[in-house]
Amino acid sequence: MSDNRDLRNSAKRFTYITSSVIQVRVPVPFSLKWINSYLLLEKNGTYTIIDPGLRTLEAEQVWEETLQELSLTWRNCSAIVVTHQHPDHYGLAGYVQQHCDAPVYMTRESKAYTDKLWGTGQAQFERDMEKLLVAHGTPIEIVEAILANMQGFVAKVEPQPVVEYIEAGQTIRLGDRQWLLIHTEGHAYGGIMLYDSLTKQLLCGDQVLPRITPHVGVVAGEDRPVLSQFLANLQQISKLDVKLVLPGHREPFEGYSERITAIIQHHKRRLASILQYVQEQRAVDSFTCCEWLFGKHLREQPHNMRFALTETIAHLDHLQEKGLLQKKNDCEGLIRYIINE
Ligand SMILES: [Zn+2]
């Protein structure tokens, strides 16, 4: 049985985490299988939705069935908060807003990315993505498959919501509680987490995930040290006193600071093995390194290939920033990394 069909079963569809927080597993048509949306219930019968999910028919149906079973309606929704702009979190925000007329809260930077990905900046972003992938040694048929896959997301974020801006450092009242908004970066620029210091609960989007590491990849057309910024942000947010983490994927968990340490260790190990690989190969492009890291089967999975490739480039660039590798352009514009001796 597919996982999405599993999600038709109410026992799998939603879970009461506490008497006022419900985890809703909203299906997504890729390897992550579902995204966690959270309902924060309010005493007057209204509720807030954190990260409503990706716009697909299956997701709409899971929402309809879940609300019905919980005796809630869209009209009871008082606010929608999107932790970051990735389509699996943001895609349904406009659809939900159409049904309840509630405000959709996001940061200004996060919203700007939605314009870049699926609005006025889309054509430029696609050109930047093509340029990036080609320069890093990706065969053209794979570049084309990745671009076509990205186009497929446009319909899955429609209609786009009218957004009210929030920003890190601000406190926002949702679910009859005060939540402090905390800045995140590296996984998605402009992202926020929501922290309740009384219960020590953290709605962290994808910044800290259990069992899987959050994706950290270069953004086409930008030149930001994503991995350095992600690791620095993890160090910063690890100081929070968190009892229960409510993540965007997989299950809520305890052991927040241990999980952050494990994610940092994962990247250190990966950097060390990539450095050794470049040393053995003498010169390597990102696509070759990516296939060595993740395997050739990703050629058939453009969505996963994009994640793997941008993540590989982020690691190679990080080693370059640290002065361990050099980045060389050959006469055809192909970027290769060599050991900096
Ligand atoms: Zn994400």
List the helices and strands and how they pair.
Layout: H1 3-6, H2 10-13, E1 14-18, E2 21-27, E3 34-41, E4 47-50, H3 57-69, E5 77-81, H4 87-90, H5 93-100, E6 104-106, H6 108-118, H7 122-135, H8 140-151, E7 163-165, E8 171-174, E9 177-183, E10 192-196, E11 201-205, H9 226-237, E12 244-247, H10 256-281, E13 283-284, H11 286-294, H12 302-321, E14 325-329, E15 335-339
Parallel strand pairs: 4-5, 5-6, 6-7, 11-12
Antiparallel strand pairs: 1-2, 2-3, 3-4, 8-9, 9-10, 10-11, 13-15, 14-15
Helix pairs in contact: 6-7, 7-8, 8-12, 10-12, 11-12
Residues 84, 86, 187-188, 206 line the site of zinc ion.
Task: Sum up the overall morphology in one term.
Answer: globular
Provide a count of the helices. Answer: 12
Total individual domains:
2
Radius of gyration: 20 Å
Largest sheet: 7 strands, mixed
Give helix % range: 40-55%
Small-molecule binders here are: zinc ion
Classify the secondary structure makeup into a structural class. Answer: alpha/beta
| Text of the CATH class of the largest domain | Alpha Beta
Secondary structure: number of strands: 15
The CATH homology group name of the largest domain: Ribonuclease Z/Hydroxyacylglutathione hydrolase-like
Q: What fold name goes in the CATH topology slot of the largest domain?
A: Metallo-beta-lactamase, Chain A
* CATH architecture field of the largest domain: 4-Layer Sandwich
Strands side by side in the biggest sheet: 1-2-3-4-5-6-7
Percent strand equals: 15-25%
Unreliable segments of 5+ consecutive residues? none
| Secondary-structure element order, N to C | HHEEEEHEHHEHHHEEEEEHEHEHHEE
**Average pLDDT score:** 95
Report the end-to-end length measured between terminal Cα atoms. Answer: 53 Å
